Amino acid sequence: MIILKLKRPALMCFHPGQYAFLKIKEIESQWHPFSIASGPQSEFLEFYIEVFDQGSWTRKLWGMLDGDGDRENSNKTVWVEVMGPYGTPLANVQDFSHVVSIGSGTGVVPMLSMLKQHVRHILRLEPSEYFRDLRQLQRDVYRLEVARQPRKGSLAQKLSSCWRKDSKEKASVTETLRHQVKRRLRSSITALKTQPVGTYDHTVTSREIKDATKKVTRLYYGVVALVVMPILGILLVGMHLSWCTLPFDKAEWMENALAICTCIFYGLFGVVATCFWDGNDLPAYMDFCFSVVGAFSCWYWFEKNLFGSFSTFDMMTYLMLTGYMTMRCWYEVVKPRHHSFRTEMLRSGINTVDKMEFVWVTRSAKLVSEIMPDINRIYDTLVEKWGEAHAARVLDIKVFVTDKDADAVRRLRESMENTNLYKNGHYTFGRPDLLKVIEDHTLDCSTKLRNSYTLLAFCGSPQLSHEIHRMKISNDISAAITGNKNHQMEYVSESYGGYKSQSGKKTEPQNVGDATNEEASVMTETTASPWRRTKRYDSTVSADDWQDEADEETKSMLEEGDIDPRLFEI
Fold it and tell me: How far is CA 410 from CA 61, 339, 402, 404, 418, in A?
């Protein structure tokens, strides 16, 4: 593992999840992409570079910086050209109240950037003031949601409520009953998770869950069925332009088909816009006006038998009506179903997520020993400034090591047994239950908060990404059928690393481009445990400083017997 640390150019701005291209002309003139591990506000660029097989670019970099055992060559200056950033950021995390970041293997690098960004924001705040402002923000978000709750509903529902004198009383009773059902369902789900398997009576809330499931599935079926509307609108516009403008003899069935399809489309639009879409904004009233005008126009054209032989005015009217309805249907189909009230109440003193859950899954205990010292340092800094209790409220780190090498796991335990993360049980040596991690997060939010907006971010293999996506959908359905729609979750993922050739060995992607120059000089080769080999290169430390530090560290390790003295024989 090579940890490369460069001075960040002043004009280079990036976000977690982006990568940069590196080129070292002394090795070759090709560019190689690596995810950026440093935080966006850091003065440096950090890259965690995994060393591959012989002949690879990373192996050549290791050999060049190592000097092939030649201490004089290992102190030379290395010129690194950097080009970037590239790629799509994982997300604007400030728009979310919570973040669950999952990294698989070396896919932990983008999550490290997000972790450093979160901790950097947290360390700027004072704990007591932060939690006080956070409680006020949650109250403001709840007030905004409650204020908008009575305004929700279609235009037809609002018109019908004007004729019902007892609408407020019934709405109040319905709202009370709805919250009672939500509390019962939430309690039953909690009991189902905590009780031993085989001891829970699944028939207690089966009817309520089935009824809630039907409502949720009807909503999703309605969204899918709505896709037909813009498709039908586009077909109508195409048929109208071709049949009414091109000079050819039209068959009678063509005019009848155009008339029938137009009446059906206008009728469906009027029903959907009036009875199903939200009636609280200006487009709702425009939809109603267009529906009325469309119904009158369709009746007029049908009565005068004008379909297929429109005048210029009729043709423009038809295109305007059909085009507006098609665009409105398309907007309702593609618009996001989740809405964060937090984004409207933010920028009022809190500009960070409430809590981040950092999850790392890896099958290499050696990789953990190389990267975890940096994570331990970040966590220890937070604990030192905030205290362990407060730190646990804003950051939760889970590391799952699935290495089958018992000796490697044993050495990892020995090297990490004195760290706070290991003492507090943040390490798990076994396969993770990622579905339980996601469900526990949603359950924790639903029991402690009125609403939440969570970012579920993943970086790793495409296969595991698909699995986590299915887990997220399953969790969304569970939250929906239990009435916890105020606890929303968005999923974003990216893949990483090289590809495997037919021989089964990993190779590296290659790219070509321009760059800016940056200088890096050797800092140290760390050996915190006898089986680790990690090279760190820092552009801010001179070779003389490195030499003094390395000599002291080597001397102490020789005295303690951690390394073999024969390694230093010439």
Answer: 30, 47, 13, 11, 14
- As a whole number of angstroms, the distance between CA 235 and CA 258 comes to 10
* Position 113, amino acid: S
| Tokens representing residue 171 in the block | 């709405």
Q: Write a three-state SS string for 115-183.
A: HHHHHHHHHCCCHHHHHHHHHHHHHHHHHHHHHHHHHCCEHHHHHHHCCCCCHHHHHHHHHHHHHHHHH
- Which residue matches tokens 């007029």? 300
**Each residue of 30-44: pLDDT tens digit?**
999 999 999 988 888
* 474 neighbors 465 (Cβ within 8 angstroms): no
Calpha distance 497→69 (Å, rounded)? 28
Q: pLDDT digits over 191-242, tens only? A: 445 545 444 444 444 565 566 556 656 666 667 778 888 899 899 888 888 8
Question: What are the helix (H) ranges across 226-311?
Answer: 228-245, 252-275, 282-304
User: Cα separations (Å) of 265 from 259, 327, 365, 542?
Assistant: 10, 13, 61, 73
**Residue in the block written with tokens 């940069």:** 20
Answer positive or negative: Cα dihedral of 245, 248, 249, 255: negative
Query: Phi and psi of 321, rounded to 5°?
Result: -65, -50
Rg, the chain, Cα only: 31
CA torsion angle 515 519 522 523 (round to 10): -110
For the beta carbon of residue 62, count every other beta carbon within 10 angstroms.
18
Q: Which of 506, 537, 547, 135 is nearest to 348 (CA)?
A: 135
Residues belonging to the chain:
570
Are the C-beta atoms of residues 308 and 258 closer than 8 Å to each other?
yes
- Burial class (CB within 10 angstroms; exposed 0-12, middle 13-18, buried 19+) of 378: buried
Q: Work out the burial of residue 498: count CB atoms within 10 Å of its CB; fewer than 13 is exposed, 13-18 middle, 19 or more buried.
A: middle
Q: Classify residue 316 as exposed, middle or buried by CB count within 10 Å of its CB (0-12, 13-18, 19+).
A: exposed
Full-model pTM: 0.66
CA 524 – CA 64 distance, rounded (Å): 14
